[in-house]
Amino acid sequence: MQSSLFGHREADGSIQQNILHGIESRATITPRDYQSEDCDKSFELWDGGSIGTLTRAFTGGGKTIIACLKFERWMDRDERNHCMVISYEKQLVHQFAQEISDVLSYEPGIEMERHSLSPGNLPRIIVASRQSLLKAPPATDEQKAKMREAGLVRYEAVHRRQAKKIIECLVEGFVRETLQEWIDELNEDPRSNRDAGSFCRIYKFDPTLNWLLCFDEAHRHAHHLKSVGHIVDWFDQNPESRRFGQTATPKRADGKSIGHKMFPDISLDYPMVSASGGRCAVTEGYAVPYEQVFIQNISIDFKSIGRLAGDFSDKELEFHLNNESELAKLVNPLLDLVGDRRTLIFSPGVDMAQNVAHFINARVPCECVCGEKQWVPRLRLDEGEPCRSCGEAMSGDNVTYDGESARAVWGEIPHEKRTQVYQDHQNGVFQFLSVCGLCREGYNDQEIACVAVFRPVSKAASSLAEQMKGRGSRPLKGLVDGLDTAEERLAAIKGSAKPNCLIVDLVGITGLADCSTTAHIYGEGKPDEVIDLANEIMLRGDTEETTDVRLAIQQAEDEIEAERERIRIERERQLALAREYAEKRSKAGVSVEYETHRVGSRPLSSKFKTEASDRQVRYIFCLGLDLCDNPITKAQGSRIIGQLQDGVDTEEVIRTNRLPADCHESLATPNQRKFLRWKRVPYGSSMTFREASSMIDRIKNNDPDDGFAG
């Protein structure tokens, strides 16, 4: 007899009634290889004594199916085995419960807000909101003292709000016996725990049962959080209980480990992309690749934006980005880029999310007789907006769609209304979904083919960017299901209506600054210099690597390796010249008479010959000399800085300090060149750092003598 996801298949192919569900199950889903592998590995680890395992599976990798595989096998083992999903976000509770119902044909219980389960009749699978399992704040010492003075006893589990009501009743003249009866009734509540002196829904769930806990979006959970630790500790009372976490991004923004205490073992590590060339979803045909583009003409300096928990402040981002001129710089290029792709737009604030939708809806897609497609403001149709390609005036006759193209949703919108908006977007009623604080996790729409990140994310919070962009990583529905090989799946994706997902990121006035980009996702674990150069390659826009992140990273590695090889060859050449020069001098036979004078101290030891600091090297570069990674001492650094500040020519500095021949006058940096390109100022490849700095200063000061004013 072969076990299936939904029941047991007999040798004749019939399906037995599943003892867990009490109904005939539907065998309509075949787990993917990595899903079965994760389930098998988890049970191997749990049976070996591991308390918790972690599943890293790419966005769109079917983590709910993985959880259902584990739930079914766990419950099949013993009637006392129960399962619980802990979700950090309320709106994901109903979604996870519905997916369990779809996969297992079993209706799980829900523990959240008005949904409250009875301890005596618990379903085998429960989906709970983490917020609903919080401990109620205990009564204050002052409240306890007042209850004690009134002669009340056994109030240990009475929480702060209940204590306030009891004290109000005392003031109103309620008799002590009546209030004591109320307290005794409260103590009988399954949520009360006098031994722990607290009140919490978690106490309804018998820890002597064997529980399998699933922490959804595991990067949102950590034992040190007051909303998590008591849950873990409650179920850990039974050494037979187990847990697992599942996430696409196993990194917390606060740098805290999610593994050490909660998930000490890894059952699956299957990312979307692998910088080391290992197994991953893109190369095996389970996820579509990203196509990266940048919107570069915004005039915001991201370096000046404040930070909260390591990421840019949403409030400050919205303040800078949410005005008509900046919206035009963001949305107009997006409209030109996306074509007919179903698009998800992330904004830093509610007002901006709404304004993005309003801005789009104030325009309509048009097609000129020459075939050029562009978006035209509705109010300018009567004026005959000229075609960008041929100049022909366009009117209402050129409009290809005159309905609503965009809608906005945010957290305060009721769940039912949000659900309707999501359904309309997924059904193609409108093209652009503009969101704030939503859809970053758990939002499943396989036809999302463009993700625009209008709220830049810092490198420290790169997992957030990965989650947002992951909304577009899924292949079209049913496209790769049933295909046995990676080659077949890759071919199917390439030939589909969604061969890739377009990612739109923003570039500020000073470049990408500390922003996370798609290159950080594809190049995870690679040196910063590779990621930075890959971003510059994509920003240059002069090769086919402009939008292909993988090719840009490969080109960056090739260029860096070529530069290192050039430096190595040059150093070898210099060493050969030095040896040749030394041999010539030794053959000359010149002798020199000299005297030595000992100064009253020991010889200079190596510990005093410290290398120049990074700060010194950077300052020397800004003063006009590129050391090209050649080491110098702090004393040399101080002497070189003094010479350059005094105006000594760089060639003379190199000669007098006996620096290697590959040192040269520092050239303009990539950020300087980007700024000059943005200002449409022509410059040569040999422009120096100081020349560029001087030119930028004149531009910023509106100096009419710069030759480029206006």
List keywords for this structure.
disordered C terminus, single chain, 7-stranded parallel β-sheet, Rossmann fold, alpha/beta, globular, 710 residues
Describe what is shown at a glance.
By secondary structure, this protein is of the alpha/beta class. The chain has a seven-stranded parallel β-sheet with strand order 5-6-4-9-10-3-11. Strands 12-23-22-15-21-20 form a six-stranded parallel β-sheet, with helices on both faces. A two-stranded antiparallel ribbon has the order 1-2.
Shape: globular
Please, how many helices?
21
Strand order of the largest sheet: 5-6-4-9-10-3-11
- CATH H level of the domain at 290-363 and 404-525: which superfamily? P-loop containing nucleotide triphosphate hydrolases
Would you identify the regions where 5 or more consecutive residues have pLDDT less than 50? 1-27, 299-313, 508-513, 590-609, 704-710
Tell me the β content.
5-15%
How many strand units? 25
Largest sheet: 7 strands, parallel
Share of helix, binned: 25-40%
What is the architecture of the domain at 290-363 and 404-525 at the second tier of CATH? 3-Layer(aba) Sandwich
Q: Structural class, judged by helices and strands?
A: alpha/beta
